[in-house]
Amino acid sequence: MDPSWEASVTDSINAIYLLFSAYLVFIMQLGFAMLCSGSVRAKNALNIMLTNVVDAVVGSLSYYLFGFAFAFGDSSNPFIGTSYFALKDIPSSSYDYSFFLYQWAFAIAVAGITSGSIAERTQFTAYLFFSFFLTGLVYPVVAHWLWSFNGWLSPNSSSLLFGSGAIDFAGSGVVHLVGGIAGFWGAVIEGPRVGRFDAFGKPVKMRGHNATLVVLGTFLLWFGWFGFNPGSFDKILVPYPHMVDQGNWTSVGRTAVTTTLAGSTAGIVTLFGRRLLVGHWDAMDVCNGVLGGFVAITSGCSVVEPWAAIVCGFCAAWVLIGLNILALKFKYDDPLEAAQLHGGCGAWGLIFTGLFAKEEFVLQAYNSGKTQIIRPSGLILGGGWGLFGAQIVELLSVVVWVSLTMGPLFYLLQKLGILRISADEEVAGLDISSHGGYAYDASQEESGPRFYGEYLRMQHQS
């Protein structure tokens, strides 16, 4: 067989695999839209679905113009990339269009996470600003640190931090912690929704209007996560030396298994944990528990044993439950629990990887299975403090970077009067006050206006 022809076939199959993974990750936008819509009240369903569309379309332009360049641009700068703006010089020897599309699907997912934290009380204009800024600058810089060849935290760098680099294979920190911390600052600066806490500071339930959409969104996200985590190998036809009939295809399968086990374990623990706390079986809580397990395993999905994924999911469930209790205590209001779920479980995922990463799997994920290389592994597995220290540095660096960028942005939008809607608009609902009608013909609350004209008359009378 002609070697050049064989190489061409291999490249083609790898490209198909990456493109298919990109399509799976993009399906997660539909999952986010369904999950968000079902988790808010009916009078805000149209608004939250529109914000998910905005995250995709605005994120596409910002990531095309700036984001991909900042994340993967060829540069000796370990902080930020400086080439490939507007995809100039793509395809190159390092990247092609398939890789851009896959990374774009990740970028727009970050904005979707943040949107959930500030749902039901945010002006639509604000979404345009923060979505462009988050996908065009804030997220790409973190992606450059971890996923480029020369990022200062990258496990692929020629100068490894602590001799290890931080392992964040599919983005517990790069994607989920970034989105969760950004959403946290947005929710803190805006404050809780009208009526979320009574005059004595006690929480008032504001349950989502449609459990069916929440469950549908959860399964769509589960499906998309099989592109999110296994797809992060980028190439599937990579054989491992000194191993018969094993290669990236083996690791891809194992990564899908660890993803499934972590999410499933977190879901069942949340089911029984919430049953003990609230006295009934709660479908929406279980769905968030499943997603929390997925978020946590995303960092170490490719480098841990299946049994360790069960440990990851078990702890992720209690992280989520505990943070939700603290959120109510401190009167923090996040309709989607996005900061707790993506931020809290994402942080746990980074720590978990530093504890349970297996050296053999680290070599497979980052060195194509070459055995003559020595890499630090998880602290609990005897790998020393190198990897664990790098994971902690990543966690702290992401929190600081996102806080220093997104916090001031939300504060500025608030000062300019374009972040939070008025109390009257919030009570009426964003669908009628900002979009001229409800998502459903029969969804309006009895006390609410039925048409945009009625809403305007109510405003005039008040």
Q: How big a fraction of the residues is strand?
A: under 5%
The separation of the N and C termini measures 81 Å
Query: Outline, from the CA principal axes?
Result: globular
Q: What would you call the structural class?
A: mainly alpha
Encode the helix/strand succession as letters.
Answer: HHHHHHHHHHHHHHH
User: What low-confidence regions span 5 or more consecutive residues with pLDDT below 50?
Assistant: none
The largest sheet is: none
- The rounded Rg comes to 22 Å
Tally of helical segments = 15
Can you offer a commentary on this structure?
With 462 residues, the chain is mostly helical. It contains 15 helices and no strands. It has helices at 3-39, 45-72, 97-117, 124-147, 172-190, 211-228, 248-278, 283-297, 306-329, 338-356, 359-367, 386-415, 423-428, 430-434, 452-461. Helix 2 (45-72) packs parallel to helix 4 and helix 4 packs antiparallel against helix 5. It is globular, with a radius of gyration of 22 Å. The mean pLDDT is 91. It comes from Anisodus tanguticus. It is a multi-pass membrane protein.
SSE layout and pairings?
Layout: H1 3-39, H2 45-72, H3 97-117, H4 124-147, H5 172-190, H6 211-228, H7 248-278, H8 283-297, H9 306-329, H10 338-356, H11 359-367, H12 386-415, H13 423-428, H14 430-434, H15 452-461
